[in-house]
Give the backbone structure.
Amino acid sequence: MTTLRLWQHFNREDLYECYQCARCTGSCPAMEVAPAIGPRETILRCLNVGHQQVAEDERLWLCCTCHVCEDRCPQQIPIGDLLVALRNSAARRGNIPGRLGMAIELLAKTGRSMIVHQLDEMRAHHGLEPLQPVAADEIREILRKTGLKEVIEF
Amino acid sequence: MKYALFLGCAIPIKYPGFEAATRLVCKRLGIDLVDLPFACCPPASSLKMVHHPSWLALAARNLCLAEDAGLDIITLCSGCVNTLKEANILLKQSETKRRKVNRILGQFGHHFKGAIEVTHILDVLYQDTFVERIIRNTQREIPLRVGCHYGCHYFRPPKYMYPEELSPTESYVPVKMDHLLSIIGVEPMEYSRKFLCCGYPLGANTDQEAGYALTRQKLSLLNERNIQALSVICPSCFEQFDMGQIVLDRKYKEKQRMPVFFLTQLIGLALGMSYKEMGLDVHRVKAKKLLTQVKVE
Ligand code: SF4
Ligand code: SF4
């Protein structure tokens, strides 16, 4: 499978639709509590310094993925798609937060996002059967073929 | 009514109490749940951000399993419903994406056809049939002042989550949980910044402290309205508020003690099921005292 092409996933022309009104950034929860870039500046930087530089910035990952920005944008710019595409491109350059990288590695290896530990007992406490195992080998094979190795070793 | 039950990862592994409560409630209301060998959804806030093609393929595999069983999917998590709904729409809309995904999944005996729908337990319980059955089967009221927290991924972006209900310029404002709880005697409370993120994805991916700062803000806005408990429909939001209060207490020496319920736990209590059956005994912030106060034992 091919990688996600930035300007195929998000129409580059849409960058020019931005008013720079900051309605997105003004409602962004990540901006309130972390040194995030914010959607307005992300768009501006894509235009001014180019998306490659944006993709190298670690702050790109400071985001709740809450989609409030896109919801509030008066120009209906699909900001969510832009952020996904930029982060996919960041990941290909090795710019992935450590915790996120570890979570993906676990998913690729086990087919689940959580570590299974002494689970049968805990489930029995709630009157539940043991959890059925997932087809972890199949998941790993699928992820080999989709090219996840481009970004994460597993 | 019969659905393929998509448990996801967090519920069966971290919060099996929600699974138990949901299974009991569904059984009582006549909703058949079928278990299929699903894997991780995978989350829109993790794999999709890192490698979109891998995210789409794994989501498609889950959709294929339900298609083969001829069943729509019911989810219990805002994250799962977000991924599976969006992937289902993307693949139904794009011949190219479908072809790419099927080229890979075909090697493992799966083929995405686009034959099913994805829904969330809240949307199912909100259907007239089940509202009526809840009313008919309610054995006791739950007279608590409850704040509902929906979880961003349950309804945003609306272009994937509720495409048929809105014009492109409208925002989706969720109300179903408030309405549903009001029929079991809960007083659903409005509060400031009700649709603010719980903080979980920010904390899980990058900055835990920043994530909890959002949680703290939400909790203080809930306390401002004298709200007694929270109701959620997502295990990640639950963790952020339940575990979060313990973490915040330690850090700020505050005595935050607002019990958090998963929606089906509150409904189950109203249907006469017990505290233990609903798995409430393992929550970090215990609801026992509050429930005893309002005579729900
Ligand atoms: S809300 Fe939309 S138009 Fe305004 S700055 Fe943000 S992206 Fe640009
Ligand atoms: S999705 Fe990210 S950038 Fe957009 S408002 Fe939410 S936290 Fe901010």
Q: What stands out?
A: Chain B touches chain A through 64 residues (CB under 8 Å). The beta strands of chain B are 2-6, 32-35, 73-75, 118-120, 145-149, 187-189, 229-232, 260-262. The longest strand of chain B covers residues 2-6. The first helix of chain B runs from residue 10 to 14.
